[in-house]
Amino acid sequence: MEKPPSFGDQESRRKAREQAARLKKLQEQEKQQKVEFRKRMEKEVSDFIQDSGQIKKKFQPMNKIERSILHDVVEVAGLTSFSFGEDDECRYVMIFKKEFAPSDEELDSYRRGEEWDPQKAEEKRKLKELAQRQEEEVAQQGPVVVSPASDYKDKYSHLIGKGAAKDAAHMLQANKTYGCGEARVRVGGGG
């Protein structure tokens, strides 16, 4: 059995067409905004390239799509770009001229949210080199022999006992099978 044509069907089709038209208009607006954003970024990147005094440029935080567009513009221009920041709302892009590409230390600094200071980095690098040289010197000297100020066997001789048991305790050697532990002698009786 067929349904008779109803007014509601025509009304719902009209609303669907209007909604599709609004959606298409929004998509066109978004597309136009992306094109305008790309042009603006191309101009900023071009100005950056022309300015010989700048070696890097930090952009304001932007959304994922805008960052993607900027990375593409930078790649086409032959520059280097990186995104920094934890949250999506505060992620930003920094661009660098190829001849002034950042070092790993500089990138790590930006990833931690710190400003890059070449002088501090040089000081840290020198300290690392000094520490490494000191470690190498210590390693070349060989193992360090540690000798305690007193013999623990004498300290606890009152527990070990007197006579032959005491002499036996003083002659014990480290049990090499189990590492550096000492063999234990039980003197006396009871539990």
Automatic annotation (TrEMBL):
<dbReference type="GO" id="GO:0003676">
    <property type="term" value="F:nucleic acid binding"/>
</dbReference>
<feature type="region of interest" description="Disordered">
    <location>
        <begin position="104"/>
        <end position="124"/>
    </location>
</feature>
<feature type="domain" description="R3H">
    <location>
        <begin position="35"/>
        <end position="98"/>
    </location>
</feature>
<feature type="region of interest" description="Disordered">
    <location>
        <begin position="1"/>
        <end position="35"/>
    </location>
</feature>
<protein>
    <submittedName>
        <fullName>Sperm associated antigen 7</fullName>
    </submittedName>
</protein>
<dbReference type="InterPro" id="IPR017330">
    <property type="entry name" value="SPAG7"/>
</dbReference>
<feature type="compositionally biased region" description="Basic and acidic residues">
    <location>
        <begin position="10"/>
        <end position="35"/>
    </location>
</feature>
<dbReference type="InterPro" id="IPR001374">
    <property type="entry name" value="R3H_dom"/>
</dbReference>
<dbReference type="InterPro" id="IPR036867">
    <property type="entry name" value="R3H_dom_sf"/>
</dbReference>
<dbReference type="Pfam" id="PF01424">
    <property type="entry name" value="R3H"/>
</dbReference>
<dbReference type="InterPro" id="IPR034068">
    <property type="entry name" value="R3H_sperm-antigen"/>
</dbReference>
<feature type="compositionally biased region" description="Basic and acidic residues">
    <location>
        <begin position="108"/>
        <end position="124"/>
    </location>
</feature>
